[in-house]
Amino acid sequence: MDELDRALIVATQGGLPLVARPYATVAETLGVAEAVVMERLQRMLADGVIRRIGAVPNHYAIGWTANGMTVWDVADEQINALGEQVGALPFVTHCYRRPRALPAWPYNLFAMVHGNSRTECEAKAQEIRQLLGSACRASDILYSTRILKKTGLRLGL
Amino acid sequence: MRELDAVDRAIIATMQGDFPICERPYAQVAATIGIAEEELLGRLERLLADKVLTRFGPMYQVERMGGAFVLAALAVPEARYEAVTAQVNALPQVAHNYRREHALNMWFVLATETPAGIAEAVARIEADTGLPVYAFPKEQEYFVEMKLEARL
Predict the structure, then answer these.
(1) How far is B26 from chain A (nearest CA, A)?
(2) Is the pLDDT of residue B124 over 50?
(3) Mean pLDDT for each 10-residue chunk of chain A (157 residues)?
(4) Do residue A142 and residue B100 have CB atoms under 8 angstroms apart?
(5) Contact present, B141 and A84 (Cβ < 8 Å)
(6) B111 at the A interface (CB within 8 A)?
(7) Cα–Cα distance between A21 and A16 in angstroms, integer?
């Protein structure tokens, strides 16, 4: 990453301009050609520096009113195999292994589920529970009740 | 919460994916939805203003730039919840923050340009709030695909 990549990130991390030629507008603020901006973005996409270019919906506003972080205490020897299977469930949007923080936090598998009711989230959690079987010792669902901040990454200038 | 029509839903479904990199990307997306470029731009502006969409643009993966993302949580006393929210949100390193129902009732994501930045942000939050930060760095990613269709 060079200075121009960094300047491009700072210029676009808040969003792309809503004009017919957004990359030309960004290019103008950076003092480079439109084609350069497009090449750089293309390369960052290929390298995985950009995960995707797209819109982030507010879950609540588009009808997903129940958003639950399901958390599971899964036997260490089985977590990688089971984590892959939980992540492959069609309704799971994020799935990670994270460290426990004993004694307050015994859970090492995190999987996000969404629904238009808590009942729907619980039915999904039940499917995860069945998949984990006896490897799972404890679980919980933490529902989000308010978005306190959702700005995404912000690099300093 | 405002009503969404079929065009709004099509925009939300289409725009979560791969926005094209070309001279007239909105025109290209509008053509696949079957609306005019100006209509797509106008509707996107409204969806963002009404906070149906929280942002639109490149999603940067800070880890690929040498930085770090960490999920962290606090157990915030109810009486101090608003004040602690303001303290935590004031840090630019806090990318998202959610209230959740649990003894650990505030969950946020720290995104920093260097791995050392995480420790600095954690120390800053602990100093500002007087509360211990529980950090849950990811050890393994099994799946990430944040695409949800509008159901309204």
Answers:
(1) 6
(2) yes
(3) 92 96 98 98 94 90 91 97 96 96 96 95 98 97 94 70
(4) yes
(5) no
(6) yes
(7) 10
ipTM score over 0.95, yes or no: no
Interchain pair A97, B139: CB under 8 A: yes
Q: Is B78 on the interface with A (CB under 8 A)?
A: no
Q: Which DSSP string corresponds to chain A? A: --HHHHHHHHHHTT----SSSHHHHHHHHHTS-HHHHHHHHHHHHHHTSEEEEEEEE-TTTTT--EEEEEEEEE-TTTHHHHHHHHHTSTT-SEEEE---BTTTB---EEEEEEESSHHHHHHHHHHHHHHHGGGEEEEEEEEEEEEEEE-------
Reduced to 3 states (helix: H, G, I; strand: E, B; else coil), residue B37 is helix
Q: Model confidence over B40-71: pLDDT tens digits?
A: 999 999 999 999 998 999 999 888 888 899 99
Q: Are strands B106-112 and A94-97 parallel, antiparallel or unpaired?
A: unpaired
pTM, two decimals, is 0.84
Nearest residue of chain B to residue A34 (CA atoms): B23
Residue found by looking up tokens 């919460």 in the block: B1
CA-to-CA distance for B122 and B135, rounded, in angstroms?
A: 8
* Neighboring chain B residues of A1 at a CB cutoff of 8 Å: 65-66
**Sequence letter at residue A46:** A
User: What would the two tokens of residue B131 be?
Assistant: 């509360």
Q: Do A55 and B71 touch (CB under 8 A)?
A: no
In chain A, pLDDT over 70 holds for what percent of residues? Answer: 98
